[in-house]
Specification:
Largest sheet: 6 strands, parallel
Number of strands: 12
Order of helices and strands: EHEHEHEHEHHEHEHEHEHEHEHEHHH
Structural class: alpha/beta
Strand order of the largest sheet: 3-2-1-4-5-6
Helix content: 40-55%
Distance between the termini: 13 Å
Number of helices: 15
Strand content: 15-25%
Radius of gyration: 21 Å
Shape: globular
């Protein structure tokens, strides 16, 4: 089967971030399917070997896997206007490029950004092939729910466009049960929706053995953005330090458009229990998780974000870390059902701090939740199985 996979913000090998799309495409190619990835160079580090090749390569060392890279930039430090311009640039350039690629048997579009969903729909119509939609964030619900789209008329227009994308999609693959519920609420039949969990890049083969004595390490790795409001972690650390919980050590790693704000807050608070670090590579992030005792996921006080499927949530559990989150929704339900973490209601900073303290002060509970986390990840978060589940849906359409 020949699949055209459109992913504007592909995380390639050797970079930092969620490499799910690359891992899925690589798995499919190794099974003999011809995969064409249409992407941008946004997440290619300056020294990445793809950048050093003359006229970006459309071949990789993996047979059947071709990557077509367009020179369109994007990063978290961009303002709203520059981001929109980046999305438009890629939309136009990718639409032109796609028409010169071999005709696919199916088009798979990865959204975000929202524009890639529409791009995939148009390219699939051009080739008259099935159109599949992979949903990492539900638009326009997320930006509208965060008050990032000030014009009600624009939100209505985006909803109309999105409803058409959903209608024309052969199948929709949201990252989480929460996202699946959002899409179903837009009138999409449940039979058309197949949740393919975000998953984790690596599941620890055995239960981690942490000491029951000494400091407890709590880790956050990821984006410092408006949606994350990482300052809440610093405030929780301050509450715990001042209340006498001085054996809890925080390691906060990442970057984003709120990076300077987070650093300034950290410096102003003079927190001796918090280490703040720039974003690191995927392998380095995993090493930090391996040495930690608790993983944190933090989101700003916007109810729409309770449907998210943050990569770090899956990565922590895959490393056998019990997780503390500061919101409710499907992830909180899973943490309670599988007994592998704790949650607090959005906006309740004291409850967030207390949940961290509860786990940190109870090594037996941490050990039990660690075992449960690893079992859950092994059963449900393995990307090899998740990629096969998605491929089976693509192949089912080809064979009908």
């Amino acid at each position: 089967m020949r699949i055209l996979y459109i992913q504007q913000l592909l995380i390639p090998p050797g970079s930092s971030g969620n490499a799910r799309s690359w891992e899925f495409a690589k798995s499919w190619a190794r099974q003999g399917h011809e995969i064409h990835i249409l992407t941008s160079y946004a997440h290619l580090p300056p020294t990445h070997n793809w950048r050093l090749c003359y006229d970006y390569p459309d071949l990789t060392p993996i047979p059947n896997l071709r990557v077509h890279v367009l020179e369109v930039d994007y990063h978290h430090m961009m303002g709203f206007g520059r981001r929109i311009w980046s999305f438009l640039q890629f939309f136009l350039a990718a639409r032109r490029k796609a028409k010169h690629l071999p005709a696919p048997d199916a088009v798979l579009a990865y959204s975000t950004p929202w524009s890639v969903a529409e791009l995939g729909r148009q390219v699939a119509r051009y080739f008259q092939v099935p159109y599949f939609l992979e949903i990492a964030d539900v638009w326009p619900e997320v930006p509208a729910g965060m008050n990032l789209i000030p014009l009600p008329g624009l939100v209505k227009w985006m909803h109309r466009k999105t409803d058409r994308m959903y209608r024309e999609a052969t199948r929709i693959f949201p990252f989480s049960p929460g996202m699946a519920s959002q899409i179903h609420q837009r009138g999409v039949p449940e039979t058309k929706i197949s949740t393919i969990l975000n998953g984790t890049r690596r599941v620890r083969p055995s239960h981690p053995s942490h000491s029951f004595h000494g400091p407890v390490t709590v880790v956050y790795t990821g984006t410092f953005g408006v949606a994350n409001d990482v300052g809440q972690i610093l405030q929780a650390a301050k509450i715990l330090w001042e209340s006498g919980n001085q054996e809890i050590r925080f390691i906060v790693v990442g970057d984003g458009n709120e990076g300077k704000k987070v650093r300034a807050q950290w410096e102003a608070l003079h927190l001796p229990n918090v280490e703040l670090h720039e974003r690191v590579s995927q392998s380095e992030a995993m090493k930090i998780m391996e040495s930690a005792d608790i993983g944190l996921v933090c989101f700003a006080n916007f109810p729409v974000l309770e449907h998210n499927a943050a990569t770090k949530f899956f990565d922590y559990l895959g490393q056998g870390l019990p997780v503390v989150i500061n919101y409710e929704g499907w992830q909180a339900e899973w943490l309670r059902t599988y007994q592998c973490g704790l949650s607090a209601h959005q906006g309740d900073l004291m409850a967030f701090a207390e949940a961290i303290a509860q786990l940190a002060s109870n090594p037996q509970l941490r050990s039990e939740m660690s075992s449960n986390a690893l079992q859950l990840a092994q059963e449900k978060f393995q990307r090899d199985q998740l990629s096969q589940d998605m491929l089976n849906h693509l192949l089912a359409v080809k064979h009908t």
